[in-house]
Amino acid sequence: MVEPQTTDRSAKAALLPAPTEVDAPFWAGLHEGELRLQRCTACQFYQYPPETFCYECGSTALEWKVANGLGTVYSFITVHQRYHAAFVDDLPYNVSIVELDEGPRILSNVIGMPSESVTVGMRVQASPRPLTEEQSALYFERAEG
Length: 145
Hints:
Blueprint: H1 9-15, H2 24-31, E1 36-40, E2 46-47, E3 62-66, E4 70-79, E5 93-100, E6 105-108, E7 110-111, E8 123-126, E9 129-130, E10 136-137, E11 140-142
Parallel strand pairs: 7-11
Antiparallel strand pairs: 1-2, 1-3, 4-5, 4-8, 5-6, 8-11, 9-10
C-alpha cells in the first residue's frame, strides 16, 4: 500500500470501532495527529489496547501520554486477495505488527512504499490520517534516518 486510497475513506471509517469511554482518548489523539497510549502511574507500564486497569500490576491509576510514535516492524503479511470492497483499490497492502518504542505492539499498515518493501526490523513512524471529518486511522511510514 503506497497511500490509503481517498475514494474509500468513508467506507474504511465505517469499519472502525466506535470509541468507548475507555479508548476515546486514543481515537481523539489520532484525529489530532498524535499517538496516545495509556501508562500506569504505579509501575510506568505502557499498554495497548486501552483498559480500565494495568496489564502489568493491576492498578487502576492510568493516564494518557503522547507516544514518540516510533517503532519497529515486528511482523507483517501482504494481502493480495480482496476481503472487503473498501480495500480493493489498495491491493496489495500489508498488515503489520509494529512494536512501539514504549513497548506495546499495535496492528496497522505501513504506507508510503510498496508492500513488498516492508521488512521485519524496519523502523517506522506513526502517521495518523483522517478518514472522515470525525474519524482518523493509525498508519505508519518508514522512519527518517
